[in-house]
Amino acid sequence: xxxxxxxxxxxxxxxxxxxxxxxxxxxxxxxxxxxxxxxxxxxxxxxxxxxxxxxxxxxxxxxxxxxxxxxxxxxxxxxxxxxxxxxxxxxxxxxxxxxxxxxxxxxxxxxxxxxxxxxxxxxxxxxxxxxxxxxxxxxxxxxxxxxxxxxxxxxxxxxxxxxxxxxxxxxxxxxxxxxxxxxxxxxxxxxxxxxxxxxxxxxxxxxxxxxxxxxxxxxxxxxxxxxxxxxxxxxxxxxxxxxxxxxxxxxxxxxxxxxxxxxxxxxxxxx
Length: 271
What we know:
The protein has 271 residues and is an all-alpha fold. It has helices at residues 3-7, 27-54, 56-63, 65-71, 88-104, 106-117, 123-160, 172-202, 207-212, 214-228, 234-270; strands at 79-81, 168-170. Helix 2 crosses helix 5 (88-104).
């Protein structure tokens, strides 16, 4: 190589990111990586929303079924969903389509979360992250299914609070906002333990720190379970609370185990 070639500025193709052997990146590279992951996740949601457009009629019928069943009761009260604005049907179509997109594309955006975390992990730890990806998707879908099974009881409870002689004429955007928030809250709650393990692998939190907060976490789980099962039935509340508590306990155990193995490796490296 000549001296001129050595002094020649690097071309565009030579700007490939050189990854640190331990997966460390600069702040600019982290931001660039985050933007790329967000774009991929957004593209997955949009493509899933296209499928949601074709499932719109079926989804509306399924989610409004608790209201329809309540309207057939012999209590003399009128119960129905009624649009009160010209643009509401289009708004509802977009919302439900995006919701379906989030559910269908959950493997994509959950993978992007872990793919963003993985560069900061050691080589041995990356295979654990891949396993957590496989676990987080079923957990998210299980949370959605749990909310769907509890929806009729929740609707029945809220409608039972109506004063005598009143009716339930609900705007669809209000009703479906409540339903979608309930679904997403239960789905995300199921994935939070997996995220805790990921944060532990990144070194942001230790297993002991998570364990020390168990009282507050259990209280939060109890409150979330009571809100998700507002019928006041203990069975419904514990049906949500017990799996979330067990998942939290499992996450704490995995974090403590990871911290113990990491301490052993560091001690061996210093010896």
